Amino acid sequence: MLKGRKMGEQMIGRFALAAVLFLAGSIDLATANEKLRVATEGAYPPFNFQDASGQLGGFDVDIAKALCQQMAVDCTFVAIPWTEIVQGLSDNKYDMIVASMAFTEERAQKMEFSAPYYRSHSVLVGDAEKFQDSAPAALSGVRIAAAQDTIQAEYLQKAYGASKAVLAKDQPGAQRLLLDNQADLLIGDAIELLSFLQTTEGARFGYVGDPISSEFLQSSAHITAKKGNSALIQKVNAALKQIKLNGVYDRINDAYFPFSIY
């Protein structure tokens, strides 16, 4: 009886262990099968863009993929026009946005914001021999291009009232306005415009004056989720911390920029 009892206990123990391992495997499988829909713009190189085949790439996309891997979730990506991207999140068309989104109080009423994942500042670009001063008072009557619905476009209309704001639907469109002489200057993010200045067409332009200093022009980019989805943002923040610690962030940074943008 004692021997049979011990054998029974051993069998129960084995079944219990098997059950624990099965449940653990099920939890891992459930986590691995979790899916997130990620939106980016696809028109803001080098942060996000589409290649000739329509494939999304760029710093934002690579960071998003690294975060998805760190969180052990399957992610699908979609390119959304900048003017529609916030509303699409509110309409639950995707779960989060990774598209160099700057924080504003207005946006914070509609979205949850992660910790910053890179930092920059805004500048003016144009004929650096003709224009040397970025102050509003020095640019009266000057045509300044910007991508609509960006913090730079909003700041342009508020701070450069004596200038003429010329708005395009996105940043490549704003760059085209400058290239085609439909604008005299272009306002945008310094890092993004570095890529533009390194192109064959953009090489004839340069930074104009000092970087624009304003509390309104936030110098950090954030990942966003639908308002109320703070649980996802907490996971994103934890994953951001991990990819900074394990070197993944730095490897992605170095693939696009010769300096740290964090």
Globally, the shape reads globular
Strand order of the largest sheet: 5-1-6-13-7
Give the SSE order as H and E letters: HEEEEHEHEHEEEHEHEHEEHH
Radius of gyration: 24 Å
Would you mind describing this structure in some detail?
It comes from Rhizobium gallicum bv. gallicum R602sp. The chain contains nine helices and 13 strands. It is of the alpha/beta class. It folds into two domains: 121 residues, Periplasmic binding protein-like II (D-Maltodextrin-Binding Protein, domain 2, 3-Layer(aba) Sandwich); 87 residues, Periplasmic binding protein-like II (D-Maltodextrin-Binding Protein, domain 2). The strands form three sheets. The protein has a five-stranded mixed sheet, with helices on both faces. A five-stranded mixed sheet has the order 10-9-11-8-12. α2 packs antiparallel against α9. The N terminus is likely disordered.
